[in-house]
């Protein structure tokens, strides 16, 4: 115990005060529009189930950033859920390896309708850098119907918000 206290005393306080971080220009405005549109079309929040289908993890890192206290996508009415049964949208990252094909299909089937699929990151669109690999299942559109794509490798939180705005604007 004394050793721990002594080490803490020697190191000092490692955490620091949260400094105000400036958001990308236009982020608040786009987010505000997204929020109004979600309220108008869904009458509540938009619930998203995310599936990492062979992703390198960087797309997830940006999706997690979108939910951090800085970008705080939840305030725009976007919520990430743990079960496909609670989801309106399926967000897919990664080049979809063959061993994820069935899991992806089943996740989609478990979602209540109306539902839509959004691919996130260049890999999810067409395999990206892994396109010709033997382990990729191929065109994701043949596994689940894709409604929209978020470009980037990885896409930033702002790109995620912008793509959702475009997509929800198209939904009747
Ligand atoms: S699109 Fe880029 S960042 Fe996203 S999973 Fe593929 S390689 Fe990783």
Explain the layout of strands and helices.
Blueprint: H1 2-11, H2 27-42, E1 46-52, H3 58-66, E2 78-80, E3 89-93, H4 98-110, E4 116-120, H5 122-126, E5 146-150, H6 157-170
Parallel strand pairs: 1-2, 1-3, 3-4, 4-5
Helix pairs in contact: 2-6, 3-6
Bound molecules: iron/sulfur cluster.
Residues 55-56, 58-59, 93-94, 121-123, 128, 153-154 line the site of iron/sulfur cluster.
Low-confidence stretches: none
CATH architecture: 3-Layer(aba) Sandwich
Which class do the helix and strand fractions yield? alpha/beta
Q: What fold name stands as the CATH topology?
A: Rossmann fold
Q: Report the principal-axis shape.
A: globular
What does this structure look like?
- Strands 2-1-3-4-5 form a 5-stranded parallel beta sheet, sandwiched between helices.
- The protein has a single domain (25-170), classed as Rossmann fold, CATH 3.40.50.12280.
- The mean pLDDT is 92.
- The relative contact order is 0.17.
- The protein is 39% helix and 15% strand.
- Strand 3 (89-93), helix 4 (98-110) and strand 4 (116-120) form a beta-alpha-beta unit.
- It is α/β, with parallel strands linked by helices and 172 residues long.
- Residues 55-56, 58-59, 93-94, 121-123, 128, 153-154 line the site of iron/sulfur cluster (SF4).
């Amino acid at each position: 115990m004394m050793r721990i206290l002594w080490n803490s005393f020697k190191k000092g306080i490692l955490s620091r005060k949260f400094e105000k971080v400036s958001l990308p220009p236009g982020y608040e405005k786009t987010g505000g529009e997204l929020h109004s549109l979600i309220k108008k079309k869904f009458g509540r929040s938009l619930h998203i189930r995310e599936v990492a289908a062979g992703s390198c993890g960087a797309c997830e890192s940006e999706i997690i950033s979108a939910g951090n206290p800085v970008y705080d996508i939840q305030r725009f009415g976007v919520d990430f859920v743990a079960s496909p049964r609670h989801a309106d949208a399926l967000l897919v990252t990664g080049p979809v390896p063959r061993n994820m094909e069935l899991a992806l299909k089943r996740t989609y089937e478990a979602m209540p309708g109306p539902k839509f699929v959004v691919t996130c990151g260049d890999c999810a669109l067409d395999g990206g850098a892994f396109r010709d690999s033997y382990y990729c299942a191929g065109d994701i559109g043949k596994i689940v119907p894709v409604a929209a794509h978020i470009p980037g490798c990885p896409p930033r939180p702002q790109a995620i918000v912008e793509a959702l705005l475009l997509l929800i604007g198209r939904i009747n």
